[in-house]
């Protein structure tokens, strides 16, 4: 995202990167309309009585009012959709923080030296799994927004069992989109991966409930938070992939072109061939506004003006790490947290793949020649990334190092059922 300063006017007006006015689509459409307007001027000079001047002036005034209303609705509707997109991204980040903090608060730990070490390790693993899965889910959402696919980095974040489950459904090796031959539809690979991660989250919560790490009511509360994730993903997915209807876009461009040709016809008797120049300037402004509206309808993607999702996922990762760090410190098990603390940094593999890092650097460095760092707000810093050495170390770590609460151990580790039920209202120590 381009951060700018209003204090230096010329740098703001003359900066071309990310500009809607200097884009090739805007200038190309303006040239086409100017050529049509020139043809209309030639026709009108050959037949001056073809279009009466007084009628054209009145029609141009009415068309100007109509077009101003139409264009205002278009831009404000796009701004409203931009705000919705930013709110949805913030909501899914809030859900990630809420789920992690709630899972930490629900799991009870005994003081060090009293509790069973294996049970403490399993509880820590449950919290880490919740954090890892929710961060994986959010990162998949952001990857879908950026239209990127990183199966190699994704593989480094999975245990062997999880990778086998992904491979059985072929979503680990899919490209950006996959084709369903039976129903002839195009599906998003990241969306299907996120559905499996949601399943893992629910299974992890259910295993913790069976082991009495959380109560039935607490498990229901965690599942309720998980249920909000696919709804947010669907809203964000629709914002990224569903443009305005074709007939609306066609109608808008017909109005633009008709208005510009009407302007050329009205100015031709007075301005002559200079009318085409005025029409070209008006066309650049109109199509630039349409370009702005089309761009801000979706605040995500590879455009220079889109929201920096790379920086947001790194910020979410740090926030979740702080939550776990504070919780393990409060319960007196800081050592258990530090044993696998470096596993938390593995999530950056998915959020800063090579294409995403280069795109994030391009966005921020593109304005370095025009805007100094002092002119940009201090809170806006370029997204950081892992170095090549860090990535090599992280990729060399065996996926089994993550560990998991194994399904096969449930019956052995869980206490016997009481009153004919496998649900326990108490919290295990």
Q: What topology emerges from the helices and strands here?
A:
Blueprint lengths: L8 H6 L9 H23 L6 H54 L10 H29 L5 H6 L3 H10 L7 E4 L4 E4 H22 L5 H26 L4 H26 L2 H23 L12 H22 L3 H6 L7 H5 L2 H12 L22 H9 L13 H4 L16
Antiparallel strand pairs: 1-2
Helix pairs in contact: 2-9, 2-10, 3-4, 3-8, 3-9, 3-10, 3-11, 4-7, 4-11, 7-8, 9-10
Would you give an account of this structure?
Keywords: Cell membrane, Ion transport, Membrane, Transmembrane, Transmembrane helix, Transport. The structure is a single chain. The chain has 429 residues and is mainly α. The chain has a domain at 81-243 and 309-351 and 382-410. It contains 16 helices and 2 strands. Strands 1-2 form a two-stranded antiparallel sheet. Strand 1 (177-180) and strand 2 form a beta hairpin. Helix 4 (117-145) runs antiparallel to helix 11.
Largest sheet: 2 strands, antiparallel
Q: Report the structural category.
A: mainly alpha
Average pLDDT works out at 73
> SSE string, helix = H, strand = E?
HHHHHHEEHHHHHHHHHH
Q: How large a portion of the residues is in β-strands, by DSSP E?
A: under 5%
Total strand segments:
2
Compute the separation of the termini in Å. Answer: 48 Å
Low-confidence stretches: 176-186, 342-403, 405-429
Query: Strands of the biggest beta sheet: in what spatial order?
Result: 1-2
Could you estimate the helical fraction of the residues in percent? 55-70%
Shape category: elongated
Membrane topology: Multi-pass membrane protein
Keywords: Cell membrane, Ion transport, Membrane, Transmembrane, Transmembrane helix, Transport
Pfam families: Bestrophin_2
Subcellular location: Cell membrane
